[in-house]
Protein: ABC transporter
Amino acid sequence: MKKLLIGLAALPLAGCISFGEKPPKALLTLSSTEQVPVGREQSSAGARTVTIQVPVVPQELATNRIPVQSNLTDVAYVRDAQWVELPARQFARVMSDTVAARTGRVVLSGAQAMGSPGARLSGELRTFGVDAGASAAVVTFDAALVRDEGGALEKQRFEVRVPVAAIEAAPVAVALNQAANQVAVQVADWVGR
Structure:
């Protein structure tokens, strides 16, 4: 009887409890514009390899939200916009697809590269959001590349800005996808030379 009374007493509270924010209508994702064709075999026996690591990010990008920089010190986030996965992981996947498609290299993940990683690409995804003052999606990647085992470290900054009509989830996501793909093409051409 006591259990029944406790359960009945807790029933009105059940509608008041919430575990987090209301989810957005749709989650956003990046997609590669360049990919290795389905069915094409790749082998490290006949091609050079490159290991692409997930880039490090500043704290404002260590979230599934899209930052909006309104000035040098203020950061907000695009309302109702949320990535399906952290942007650094998605960006690394776009770079992997693009490098493999444009260079013919076999792209390895960190786990696959234990024995012979080949060239190693890492870096910092410094900007992956919106510059409100310029109404542009901005992707800035500071790349670090070691072409051969024991070789010198090369660094280069890549940045692409794509205009956005409105700072809303859909147009910002499209512009960021375009900018990420353009940066990935630039990185692939740099890695492939």
User: Anything to note?
Assistant: The chain has a mean pLDDT of 87.
